[in-house]
């Protein structure tokens, strides 16, 4: 072993960049035109990548979409973690945490993920890939929410209340699918913050 | 005008029965094979109706599916109303109401509606039909929940808490899409009943 730097491999970098462009274009495409309109060819064109290069990375729509939603989920969890760490000095207000969650579940990524879930609900092979991915994302979102709220899950009922909060924001994501639900969502989350403070014994 | 009975019109009855069979088959079909697999031809076959007769009632998939979800929503609201009226003698426990809502949002109808919402999210024409229908269903579900819980919406925050309850069960419906979530849902709703009793000042 030497300390000499390993020469960069431009081709590998290019390949990684191409893959990432395809994943990002796939999320945009799913969120805007839906599952039926999201094919490898359409995504390749949107990403400015040749169809051949795209198919080198992803042979099927299912492969591309699953990879895209996983990539996007990782990014959203990282963003959530970062933003919560910024708030960590001053203990974040419950409403700040809820607002972050509300954003997470109304983003283009949520819309893209929703397309994937719905497609997977009638496709066993796709479902087998999506279920463990969603379980992992769900655990991460739960853990981050517990940390952000400083909730003590050893207290009976706290775990279920945190879960209910995540199911609520998931429902809010669905409510935002066809119309802009942001004004109602803001009122609802302000009230939810009070309910949560009382249920968790948190001082507002 | 006479008091003589108007003769029944068997052809009209048959037509109505055919329409109803198509609507019910469309809900089953959407819930099991999804939007892409739900065509007028497939639904006609499932309903045991000729393709010509089916197309006499519904020219396009969009027409059929929208009518089916509307029909199913009306039936579910009626069922919910009936079941709540049965409970009305003894004031229903909060958990009973939540369990009813949980069933409503994990039924084949919810799955069918979800397929329609997701399709409408990238189809402006379909969206224009679905949005007022969903608004009407949402108002009905809200009104029934308020009645069932005997909630007083003139108290600040109560309206938002009822809305949150409905968004929560909608999120629970989504969580049940790919895996059987019933055990977690039961625990969560038991805890939510306690939170709701406290938030609404309801004695359990």
Automatic annotation (TrEMBL), chains A, B:
A Pfam family matched by this chain, by name?
A: TetR_N
Task: Please give the DNA-binding region boundaries.
Answer: 39-58
Keywords from UniProt, A to Z, are: DNA-binding
Q: Which intervals hold domain HTH tetR-type?
A: 16-76
**Superkingdom per UniProt:** Bacteria
> Has the keyword DNA-binding been applied to this entry?
yes
> What is the protein name for this chain?
TetR/AcrR family transcriptional regulator
